[in-house]
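Message: I would value a second opinion on how I read folds in token form. Give me a protein, with the fold worked out from its sequence. Write it directly below this note and I will take it from there.
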Amino acid sequence: MIEEADVKQGQRQGIGDDGLAGRVAIVTGGARGIGRAICERLAVGGARVAVNYNASGRAEAAESVAAGIRAEGGRAVAVRADVSDSAQVGAMVDQVANELGPPTILVNNAAVTRVHGPWIEIDEEEWDRVLANNARSCHLASKAVHPHMVDARWGRIINIASVTFLVGQANLVHYVASKGAMIGFTRSLARAVGHEGITVNSVSPGAIQTEMDLEVFAVEQDQIAAEMSKLQAIPRRGMPEDVSGIVAFLASEEASFITGQLINVDGGWAMH
């Protein structure tokens, strides 16, 4: 049920009638970086937002995102769940439905990213861990929210992939494989659920400067910026807000005839 407060939240932020007001969104991995920006952008449009996190060390960050949304008059909760575990995913969706309402927007953003290394050093356990967190999670979360979307005859599933799938990337073999799986999943699922009023799309960010990027490559930031300026058509670092805008668009009514697509947000690094 869309409440007047949700509509006013969107109007207060100067957002048009994009269909987000009163919708309930789950953003996995929403505590930091691109996930945080997506949570905040969907809330600006009036959506109620569940900020998912897994590691206990992310609890404070996730609650901070939710608290910031509430401070602006929106509705949000922080929800812990390992999205590679079906039981935890089911419990998360039930909690969100009880506290915010039936979720009809799902952003599969959670991913294991600190995985750089030679491909010959990847063992089976590490391969399975990355594929489970980055790819299997999309299937589990989509399946868990599907009944709510079917009931509403409306749904948006948006999978955050990576430009590395398009350009190939040394020392990221299992990560790139997981993102390729996500893109294939997007296309097949779009075919399966289109008749139910559900769209499924993927977004591939480029070299986005996030907290993780600053932590892992702290001393290389100037070098990265210089390299990306040569590779990209737009000579600047991408920011989380560059990604959150296209996600909000894909979640909106304006994107109701777009499904099964991969949209690249990388400043013109890879063009396809």
Observations:
- Residues 4-263 form a domain with the Rossmann fold fold (CATH 3.40.50.720).
